[in-house]
Specification:
alpha+beta, Immunoglobulin-like, Four Helix Bundle (Hemerythrin (Met), subunit A), 2 domains, eight-stranded antiparallel beta sheet, about 30% strand
Length: about 290
């Protein structure tokens, strides 16, 4: 919904978002968000004898700021504050629509909460806009307000979130190590994270399960596990305890196949998925450390 902002001289600014308006880039402990907007000035009929104190529209420069809110429903329902936005440069508004961008910073924790609320769906972005300018040749500060809202599809938002690894709801913080199999496992883990972001929980778990196969093969956990379960937990050595953890994780992930009488009714929540994928990331991180030491 276009923002219509009435200026004190009677003119009106029309501010809108252009197609694929959202862009996000990595930042320390969060993400930088950019929104692409357009502005056009709708003038009133000219006054015959304007005041000499009036600055012509073409010479006016506007500072544009906004409070950004999000909603997973509709613009007027359950909106939540996300961050502040500001144009990097002063904006000149003329009758012909021109583009400009506003920028802000979203902390990592807020991104995680937003992804949990979004649950793979699209979003509404709502901008509470403030336009400021120094008005008149006898200068005074003037401000005007308006509201712009527009929807962002689930796919478009997910694509931008994919650019911000450290700011995602499910982090994959595993170091790269030598070996083609390991690189393939990391790619699978990233795929699992993307699928979970889109709320495809079972598919995400199966991708993580494939990634965990590399850990099982490298450490030989299946054979170690078979011997370990013959002992009481307190009697197992460290290698056996790690093997049991890996095999139990693999078994839990395998439930997403729903291919037998036991697992056919298993239901995994988004939170279950986040926990299991994080566990797989941890096991891959341990493997990377071991290979680095060899």
């Amino acid at each position: 919904m276009t923002a219509s902002i009435q200026l004190s001289d009677g003119d009106r600014l029309e501010i809108d978002a252009y197609r694929e308006a959202v862009r996000m880039t990595p930042a320390i402990a969060g993400a930088r968000i950019e929104l692409g907007l357009t502005v056009a000035r709708v003038p009133v009929p000219p006054i015959a004898n304007p005041s000499p104190n009036v600055v012509p529209a073409a010479e006016q420069r506007h500072r544009v700021t906004a409070a950004l809110y999000v909603s997973t429903r509709l613009p007027q329902q359950d909106r939540r504050y996300l961050c502040q936005l500001e144009a990097e440069h002063l904006v000149t508004a003329v009758e012909r629509s021109t583009k400009f961008r506003v920028y802000g910073f979203i902390p990592e924790q807020q991104l995680r909460v937003l992804e949990e609320l979004r649950a793979g769906k699209g979003l509404w972005l709502i901008l509470a806009l403030t336009v400021s300018l120094v008005e008149g040749k006898l200068a005074r500060l003037a401000e005007a307000d308006g509201e712009l809202s527009f929807s962002v599809g689930a796919g478009e938002w997910s694509e931008q979130m994919e650019q911000v690894d450290a700011g995602t709801f499910v982090e994959v913080l595993v170091p790269m190590a030598g070996g083609e199999d390991y690189a393939g496992a990391v790619a699978l883990l990233r795929e699992a994270r993307t699928l979970l972001r889109d709320n495809k929980v079972d598919a995400a778990l199966l991708a993580a399960r494939k990634a965990l196969e590399v850990v099982r093969a490298s450490f030989g956990t299946e054979a170690v596990y078979k011997e370990a379960v013959k002992q009481r937990p307190a009697q197992r050595d460290l290698r056996a305890r790690w093997a049991v953890m890996v095999e139990d994780l693999f078994s839990t992930l395998s439930g997403a196949l729903h291919n037998d009488e036991v697992t056919k009714d298993f239901v995994y929540s988004r939170e279950d998925g986040a926990t299991l994928i994080a566990g797989t990331a941890g096991m891959l991180g341990r493997l990377a450390k071991e290979r680095h030491l060899l």
